[in-house]
Amino acid sequence: MKNALNDLKSFVTIAMIIILTIIVVADLLGSNLTDNVLILVTNLITSVFTYYFTKKEEDK
Questions:
Q1: Measuring CA to CA, how many Å separate 38 from each of 25, 41, 48, 59, 60?
Q2: Average pLDDT per run of 10 along the chain, which is 60 residues long?
Q3: Which one, of 60, 43, 53, lies nearest residue 13 by Cα?
Q4: DSSP 58
Q5: Nearest 5°: CA angle at 20, between 14 and 31?
Q6: Is there a contact between 23 and 38 (Cβ–Cβ < 8 Å)?
Q7: 52, 41, 56, 58: which is closest to 8 by C-alpha?
Q8: Are 60 and 32 in contact (CB under 8 A)?
Q9: In this structure, how many other beta carbons lie within 10 angstroms of the beta carbon of residue 15?
Q10: Angle at 26 between CA 51 and CA 22, to 5 degrees
Q11: pTM for the model
Q12: Are 48 and 16 in contact (CB under 8 A)?
């Protein structure tokens, strides 16, 4: 977990998972979130994950 705070990719991944978890738990507890919020967050998470995990590392 200490390395995750220093590495941007890991930090963004953990932050997105926390945000998605909060939204899902809030929805389960009866919060009136629209479906558009969940769709927006999942699309954002998908795009960020796709960018980070398909990005090719440059030769050093």
A1: 12, 5, 15, 38, 39
A2: 65 81 82 76 83 69
A3: 53
A4: P
A5: 145
A6: yes
A7: 52
A8: no
A9: 13
A10: 35
A11: 0.60
A12: yes
